[in-house]
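sorry for the late reply, my laptop died twice this morning and i had to redo everyting from scratch. anyway the thing you sent over, i finally got around to it. pasting the sequence first so we're on the same page, its 417 residues, then the predicted structure underneath. double check i copied it right bc i was rushing
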Amino acid sequence: MDKIVINGGNRLQGDVTVSGAKNAALPILASTLLGSGEYHLRRIPRLIDVATIRRLLVQLGAKIVDDGDSVVIEMKRIANCQAPYELVKTMRASILVLGPLVARMGEAHVSLPGGCAIGARPINLHLTGLEKMGAEVKIEHGYVWVKTKRLRGASIHLDVPSVTGTENLMMAATLADGTTRIENAACEPEVVDLAQFLKKGGARISGAGTDVVTIEGVQQLYGVDYEVMPDRIEAGTYLAAGAITGGDVLVCGCPSSYLEAVLSKLREAGAKLKEEAKGIRVCGPKRLQSVDVKTSPYPGFPTDMQAQIMAVMSLADGLSVITETVFEGRFGHVAELRRMGADIRIQGNQAVVQGVSRLTGAPVMASDLRASASLIIAGLAAEGTTEVSRVYHLDRGYEQIEDKLVRLGAMISRRKE
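ok and here's the structure:
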């Protein structure tokens, strides 16, 4: 098992380019189940989660070839309709094959998913929506079993604006008979990216990016050439790293429109931000100011940036309150930040952070993907050496993060534990 070792205290400087968005690539890869043509996908990040869903697609009958920076996928025939526990257990996003399989084949047997321990993420919204579209649903022996002669359009209201729920039902509806209307839909850019991809292949979708998405079912979808959007969370992580180290970092390849809530909080904390032709430049001050943060669905502050901003606030002047409204179990990084000298108290779904004058390096353990990034950010600014273990979480969502940080001047390396 690997660990990340950081010798902190270096000011980050230079350019860093973000990879394709994991949270856009996964549903787009799953949606290739809908069409029998050939897909050429560019900017697919090399991540553990992406490798997992690729293995799942191959098991379902796909032929996948790497062609330079592109991935070529052909799904002429689906060999079976089962997503087994052995593949699904490590990644919640694997549930995204459910909608496409039911839409194209009329059935799916998908293991209940696993993944990071950051709170309950039930799939009842997916299943209720499929039932409204005429599918029979049952859960037995750890598997979801869904069957239908053919899905039909329906009006679906989501209790909460679930991203994967919106994506799964949107994919299912592309091949359904009639029109499907999804109300209280998620508005995240990754949902829009999936919709643009599906539309390029012949789907009829309107309203993506708003809380009402309408899909008119078609008979068939076709293969396309498509480039996945940049990863806004990766971009936000490098902006936070630049800010906490008082650095001067240009984050290339990600427009500011994806990051307005994060940029607003970094500006409020005293970081100077400028949009340039290549991307967003952050210049961190000698000392940041505390700000309050409350996570919420897009366009609010993303829950996937909560751990990173908490690391930044641990070295800011004053008191900040960070409120987590999306996942109730997403404070696993707090105890580890405390080991580095952070002053953080948990009160229900709030973390009260009193900024300290310095953090010190320590051995810490990552509890989930974004917690890993939080501990690396803290380690970059800490005095001495920080060792982050269990970084397999990190490899689920950040492509070559230590190499990119080295190019910015960080003293960071990957070692075997």
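The radius of gyration is 21 Å.
thats about all i looked at so far, will dig more tmrw
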